[in-house]
């Protein structure tokens, strides 16, 4: 297959579940994807989900929503540059522009964190810890090894694919019916829970879809021409644009989160400006007093301008890495990520992440609130698992089942009137297997916002009344 033919597959306008959907004459299918993600309820809930600093009282601290918007801005820039590169090499399919490539990356960036549970990565750990405790306490549950792994290794990335390929529009095939390129770019780790691991290489360090969604993922990969790797493990080649989405996220993690730490008083201005100057390769003299208009600015504005310079430099360096490694990326043999492929990464960019980890991610307040959230999620799942799996006919269990919205009981395309009929008969759970009941719980709890999860836990335990 020629490179042009391969990119024609990689940038197809086909939608999951609606291959023949008519095109909007005013907007490209990829711009429509951006709209579908932006107006989805799962995306809106990011406004009250933790980025780094949970339940912050500052109105300037980033949430998952503002983080995702910033990632999408950087992703669009990187995508459009990639589109112009492909255009110059006559690799863009007819009717697809450089702006369309930017729209694909932007849409994937907007959606990339939607599957994260309350309290971010701490929430993922809470669900995994609960799953290990629950499954060890109930070894006789009717679950395959692969199904158990979906909970023991709960992964926000897999939940993101599940939301947009299935649960955001449960009554129909394909969920929101995003284009295959957007979904392919969204699957950062193209393998199931049983095929990932730290020794599997960068693209398979984590996993991208639960067992229930494996057929949907396979349809996406097949439509894009992404082949399965050789060997016994189920691992597919990454979509080339995944690397740009991943890099945009890495840039925001490395740079923008430090600005939040400064605003919250966890990092001093001089220390912040020094690490930014090193990353932007400007030299310490750029921050000496009296050197240019930046030094007449308010401290927060100086920090913001320095951050912008670092982001601009990182975008340039990242795109250079993408261009240099494009043949390997297309062939599926590239084994790193773009940020770590930048020659000066260790000297210029690694200190950014080290400082963010030390002063931000591991700060006392962050750890205290994450611990509270950790316990709340475990308590919620204990109560719900009792009602859904181990004691579904108990009096309290029936009440808990009624608290969970009816759409969470739908795990395959089902007309709404049929769901209503099941509820009227009190039989919403009857058609669900043990695996599907547990998926219902993780779908419900992982979709909660930070505050809603804490309040629901308090209500269920009697700590607080509605």
Automatic annotation (TrEMBL):
Residues 60-263 form the HD/PDEase domain. GO terms for biological process: dGTP catabolic process. GO terms for molecular function: dGTPase activity. Gene3D superfamilies: eoxyguanosinetriphosphate triphosphohydrolase domain-like (1.10.3550.10), Hypothetical protein af1432 (1.10.3210.10), putative deoxyguanosinetriphosphate triphosphohydrolase like domain (1.10.3410.10). Coiled coil: none annotated. InterPro entries: dGTP_triP_hydro_central_sf, dGTP_triphosphohydrolase_C, dGTPase, dGTPase-like, HD/PDEase_dom, HD_domain. SMART domains: HDc. Its EC number is 3.1.5.1. This is Deoxyguanosinetriphosphate triphosphohydrolase.
């Amino acid at each position: 297959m020629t490179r042009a033919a391969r990119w024609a597959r990689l940038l197809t306008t086909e939608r999951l579940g609606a291959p023949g959907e008519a095109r909007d004459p005013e907007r490209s299918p990829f711009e429509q994807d951006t709209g579908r993600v932006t107006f989805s309820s799962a995306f809106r809930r990011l406004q009250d989900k933790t980025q780094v600093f949970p339940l912050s009282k500052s109105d300037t601290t980033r949430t998952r929503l503002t983080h995702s918007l910033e990632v999408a801005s950087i992703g669009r820039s990187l995508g459009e540059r990639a589109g112009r590169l492909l255009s110059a090499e006559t690799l863009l399919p007819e009717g697809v522009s450089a702006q369309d490539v930017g729209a694909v990356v932007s849409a994937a960036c907007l959606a990339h964190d939607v599957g994260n549970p309350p309290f971010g990565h701490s929430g993922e750990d809470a669900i995994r810890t609960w799953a290990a405790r629950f499954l060890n306490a109930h070894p006789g549950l009717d679950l395959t090894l692969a199904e158990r792994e979906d909970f023991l290794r709960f992964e926000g990335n897999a939940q993101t694919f599940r939301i947009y390929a299935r649960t955001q529009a449960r009554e129909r095939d394909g969920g929101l019916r995003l284009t295959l390129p957007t979904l392919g770019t969204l699957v950062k780790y193209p393998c199931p829970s049983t095929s990932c691991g730290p020794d599997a290489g960068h693209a398979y360090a984590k996993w991208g879809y639960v067992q229930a969604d494996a057929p949907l993922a396979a349809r996406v990969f097949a439509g894009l021409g992404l082949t399965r790797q050789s060997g016994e493990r189920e691992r597919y080649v990454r979509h080339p644009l995944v690397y740009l989405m991943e890099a945009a996220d890495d840039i925001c993690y490395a740079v923008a989160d430090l600005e939040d730490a400064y605003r919250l008083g966890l990092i001093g201005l001089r220390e912040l400006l020094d690490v930014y100057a090193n990353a932007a390769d400007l030299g310490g003299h750029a921050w000496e007093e009296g050197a240019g208009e930046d030094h007449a600015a308010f401290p927060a504005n100086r920090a913001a301008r320095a951050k912008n310079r670092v982001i601009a430099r990182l975008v340039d360096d990242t795109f250079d890495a993408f261009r240099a490694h494009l043949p390997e990326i297309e062939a599926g043999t590239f084994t790193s990520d773009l940020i770590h492929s930048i020659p000066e990464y260790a000297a210029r960019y690694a200190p950014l992440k080290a400082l963010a980890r030390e002063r931000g991610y591991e700060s006392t307040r962050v750890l205290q609130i994450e611990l509270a959230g950790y316990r709340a999620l475990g308590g919620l799942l204990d109560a719900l698992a009792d009602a859904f799996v181990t004691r579904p006919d108990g009096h309290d269990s029936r009440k808990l089942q009624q608290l969970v919205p009816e759409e969470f009981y739908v795990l395959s395309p089902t007309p709404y009137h049929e769901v209503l009929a099941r509820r009227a008969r009190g039989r919403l759970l009857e058609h669900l297997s043990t695996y599907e009941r547990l998926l219902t719980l993780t779908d419900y709890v992982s979709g909660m916002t930070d505050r809603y999860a804490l309040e629901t836990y308090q209500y269920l335990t009697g700590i607080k009344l509605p």
